[in-house]
Amino acid sequence: MKRLGSGFLLVAAGAALWGTDGLFRRALAFEMPATKVVFWEHVILVAVTLPLLIRFWRNRPQLTGKDMAAILFVGAGASAVATILFTQAFTYGDPTTPLLIQKIQPVVAVLGAYLLLGERLLPRYGWYFLAAVTGGWLIAFPDPFDVGVSQVAPALYAFGAAALWAMGTVLGKHLTKKVPPNELTSVRFAVGLPTAFIILVVRGEAGDAMNLTFSDFGALILLSLVPGLAALMLYYRGLKTTPASSATLAELAFPLTSILIGWVAFDRVLSGSEWAGIILLSATIVVMTRAANRGREALGVKELEAAQPL
Asked: 11: closest CA among 170, 238, 233?
């Protein structure tokens, strides 16, 4: 049972590393198109994880048509398209709205887990869900009851990213049954790379893709290796033993780290409601980690015996 608790904690740790994304992505988003940023991310990540991709190809697990569809969705949708949408949201200069919209991930993931993985939610999960989303809302807005109309555009981009990432959590959970976590990470990037390139071509931005300054390339490497590679390897290792419905709450460590980095690195002063959100969200993750040691039902998730998952 302790592996379950460790898995939840690893998912939260991976998500926390995602929160360092703003240190690199926000500046890059103002200097180059979002598609160019994501394309180079995937070039770097495929190069670094190439040995894992070769190992996956040599082992070639028995994958069904539905498994292959899941891989395509995780790589093209959750890796390439979602990251492009999220990067685009930063170009509006508001880092809070993209973070807020990530709170819809549990809603989409819970629906996906119910439909695809045969997971059923117990009443106690609702309390975890309510506490985590409330904490996330308080973190995202200095004034949680005053959300401006100007945030609609970045919200739409971030909403699309959050929905794709949430379904990527569900399908990634399914794939970890057949594909080792590190190899799944490499496959995700390998599928995402041609997707990002195709989007570059369609948008007419391929010609500018090779124009990079030394500082931009350095930032892209850091972006790729820290909130990209390291975060995903921790995430998939933890996801292997964590219910998808609960993993998506652990992922709320992402906005927690982001807001703390904004405070430390960018001198952003936190309001009282944001501090309340940090405490509430941190406490929720700690409580869920301890509950995970007692099994799935302690987390509020139960597998349906009669379900037909994927």
From this structure: 238
